[in-house]
Automatic annotation (TrEMBL):
Limits of the Inhibitor I9 domain: 3-75
Superkingdom of source: Eukaryota
Protein's UniProt name: Xylem serine proteinase 1
Species this protein is from: Solanum tuberosum
Pfam families per UniProt: fn3_6, Inhibitor_I9, Peptidase_S8
Any one GO biological process: proteolysis
One annotated Gene Ontology cellular component of this protein: extracellular region
Position of the signal peptide: none
Gene: LOC107057767
């Protein structure tokens, strides 16, 4: 910034005056070029409303780096903490004092401050380093913040610039969508007893880091969602002094130097702030995840071992537990059980002729079937399916239960063989310890990362399906057919948006336990301690690919393991310069790199695509016969309590040879660094084959196992 200016905002305003091409004598002179935001924390720059001609003038000014048009952003509990192993007796919760005094900034749709999740019972004074405010606005005043919800701000200048005549319906940090209330309470909500979703999943709700402080930055409004506002929120969060940023949204099909989250998170990383982001909900197609950014934590979504149930009782006494989320306290008692092959797909207009009993549906599309059953006025239905997307669904508006094909065969046999078959269904039951769990969610977006394929993304998986968390009263939490809206203080939602705050909360706990750790160190601890087996001691399966074994392109290193991440043994650290070396190796132009780094002092003398990352991906061109040989050099830091000796264990991918040199690492002291080289040699003959394995550095006395996934995969075509 030139010395003539006292602030970045003053400087940026001066620049805009310089490029203003409007006729000062004209009527339009009353509407000068408008500065929306001046950014100077997470990165340096500004957002403004300017014409194409003014942009051309701006591009010729000294110091100009880059410009791009504003973009739309995509938005991506009672038991999840138990499923992850968090407990009050030992491990990460007590070691971190439950995240006490760690500040998490949530970039989202706002917050409903009256929710019991934001009460500050048991909280001590606000950390003195906090610089944020509780910004008043429509239906929101300063008194709504407290020692739990310590700050709220809102940013909508981008929305207003896109539609100058628009009226913002809720011009404050108050949530009118529900997404932000759900994600923030998942990160760090306080204890709420008696939480449930209409009788399902009853228990004490709490966030992953229940003693962490929360700050909400509302950047999503009913009227729009724009990159300039997201940037402003992230920039302000860094200035306010947050330790972790949780952002459950992303931008698709943009390179790193045009991705607002990539740009802002680089500056956050430089200042020691870990950014945790969602992978997206685009499904199983390879290479469509977003937020595959090398300097942040990217989270995929999986299930937990909780089943929301309806109990089906047949007239012969057989009891079958199925899946249901029907939100009413009801019992469908001893109705005739109807099986007719001519209508069993439940898509027939003839259904109304059979509406005197419980209809058995099979071989159809569940979401159409339940609607057709409701229209027929049948009392209930039994749906026979193992389609995984059904069990990620958040609404069940009409009485019914979903059962497996195996159980379905027994029900059909009874219906056919009995003279007067009957059945009953009851609801609002919950069971835990179901198997297998976790499984990768069918909707979670898959790698490789189109932003940069040379880093394995996603990093980890966290619970994302049917997560129970706080909700807002003016948006329905459930529906009853035909259009009865039900409100609830808590609701269940599925998505990587729900997985991300689990990771953010764990990162906050780790920051509380290890305040000296860098964002890269925290991410490393989470990756190398993750679990790749389910609760049947088998490899985690992928529900989106017929329950085949999940690859790291779907789940990263596996399910995040909070307690093991507390004491990982070794970490893979990285500095801002390491990321700059990576950017240099990406063949970006000087200005493109400068857009991300904001510094012209860097050089590309040490350009390297071999970032010190705790995972490995080797890419081949997708041909009939594929071969490759690739070397990776990694440096690990001993964060154990003293001297340590490690040896290597390997799970070698098929059609691949793996070598590690040296095969033993001997550390004489804590914080000592040692390096090793991993060589991957692949010789495959299947087009599109993805193979995977891992290496594990094992402490010879059995205290630590530091695992890094290895993937060999075909390159994807990007923009």
């Amino acid at each position: 910034m030139p010395k003539a200016f006292t602030s970045h905002e003053q400087w940026h305003s001066s620049i805009l005056e310089t490029v203003n091409l409007k006729d000062t004598a004209s009527e339009s002179s009353t509407k000068p070029t408008r500065l929306l935001y001046s950014y100077d924390n997470a990165f340096q720059g500004f957002s403004a409303v300017i014409s194409e001609d003014e942009l051309q003038v701006l591009e010729k000014l000294p110091g100009f780096v880059s410009a791009y048009a504003d973009k739309m952003v995509t938005l991506d509990t009672t038991h999840t903490f138990q499923f992850l192993g968090l407990n009050t007796e030992s491990g990460l919760w007590p070691a971190s004092h439950y995240g006490e005094d760690v500040i998490v900034g949530v970039i989202d749709t706002g917050v409903w401050p009256e929710s019991r999740s934001y009460k500050d019972d048991g909280m001590i004074g606000i950390p003195s380093r906090w610089k944020g405010i509780c910004e008043p606005g429509q239906e929101f005043n300063v008194s709504m913040c407290n020692k739990k919800l310590i700050g709220v701000r809102y940013f909508n200048k981008g929305v207003k610039a896109a539609s100058p005549n628009i009226t913002i319906s809720m011009n404050s940090g108050r949530d009118t969508h529900g997404h932000g209330t759900h994600t923030s309470s998942t990160v760090g909500g306080n204890y709420v007893e008696g939480a449930s979703f209409f009788g399902y999943a009853t228990g004490t709700a709490r966030g992953v880091a229940p003693r962490a402080r929360l700050a909400m930055y509302k950047v999503i409004f009913d009227e729009g969602r724009f990159a300039s506002d997201v940037l402003a929120g992230m920039d302000q969060a860094v200035a306010d002094g947050v330790d972790v940023i949780s952002i459950s949204m992303g931008f698709d099909n943009v390179p790193l130097y045009e991705d607002p989250i990539a740009i802002a998170s680089f500056g956050a990383m430089e200042k020691g702030v870990l950014v945790s982001a969602s992978a997206g909900n685009a499904g199983v197609t390879p290479g469509i995840l977003h937020n595959g950014i090398p300097w942040l934590l990217t989270t995929a979504a999986g299930s937990i071992d909780r089943v929301l149930s309806g109990k089906l009782t047949l007239g012969n006494g057989q009891v079958i537990t199925g899946w249901s989320m029907y939100p009413a306290s009801a019992v469908v008692n001893e109705f005739p059980l109807i099986y007719n092959e001519s209508i069993s797909s439940c898509n027939s207009t003839s259904l109304s002729s059979f509406n005197y009993g419980i209809i058995i549906c099979e071989n159809g599309y569940f979401f159409d079937q339940i609607n057709n059953i409701a229209k027929s006025s049948a009392p209930a239905a039994i749906y026979i399916s193992d389609n995984p997307s059904i069990f990620e669904r958040e609404e069940f508006a009409y009485p019914g239960v979903v059962i497996s094909p195996e159980n379905g065969a027994a029900v059909i046999s009874y219906a056919k063989s009995s003279v007067n078959p009957v059945a009953s269904i009851s609801f609002q039951q919950t069971f835990v310890r179901s198997t297998p769990a976790p499984v990768v969610a069918s909707y979670t977006s898959r790698g490789p990362s189109p932003s940069y394929q040379g880093i394995l993304k996603p990093d980890i998986m966290a619970p994302g399906s049917l997560v129970l968390a706080s909700w807002i009263p003016n948006v329905h939490a459930a529906l009853l057919y035909p259009a009865i809206e039900l409100s609830s203080e808590f609701t269940m939602i599925s998505g990587t948006s729900m997985a991300c705050p689990h990771s953010s909360g764990i990162a906050a706990l780790l920051k509380g336990a290890h305040p000296e750790w860098s964002p890269a160190a925290i991410r490393s601890a989470m990756i190398t301690s993750a679990i790749n087996i389910d609760n049947t001691n088998s490899p985690i399966k992928d529900s989106g690919l017929n329950y085949s074994i999940a690859t790291p392109l779907a789940m990263g290193a596996g399910l995040v393991n909070p307690n093991f991440s507390l004491n990982p043994g070794l970490i893979y650290d990285a500095t801002p310069q390491d990321y700059i070396n990576l950017l240099c190796a990406m063949k970006f132009t000087h200005k493109q790199i400068l857009t991300i780094t904001r510094s012209s002092t860097y050089t590309c003398q040490n350009a390297s695509s071999d970032l010190n990352y705790p995972s490995f991906i080797a890419l081949y061109t997708n041909e009939t016969t594929a071969t490759l040989s690739q070397k990776f050099v990694r440096t690990v830091t001993n964060v154990g309590n003293g001297p340590a000796n490690y040896s290597i264990n390997m799970v070698v991918p098929s059609n691949t040879n793996i070598s590690v040199y040296p095969s033993r690492l001997s550390f004489s002291s804590k914080y000592e660094k040692l390096s090793y080289t991993l060589t991957v040699e692949y010789n495959g003959n299947k087009t599109g084959e993805v193979v995977f394995g891992s290496i594990t550095w094992v402490d010879v006395i059995g205290l630590h196992a530091v695992t890094s996934p290895i993937v060999v995969a075909p390159m994807i075509h990007t923009w």
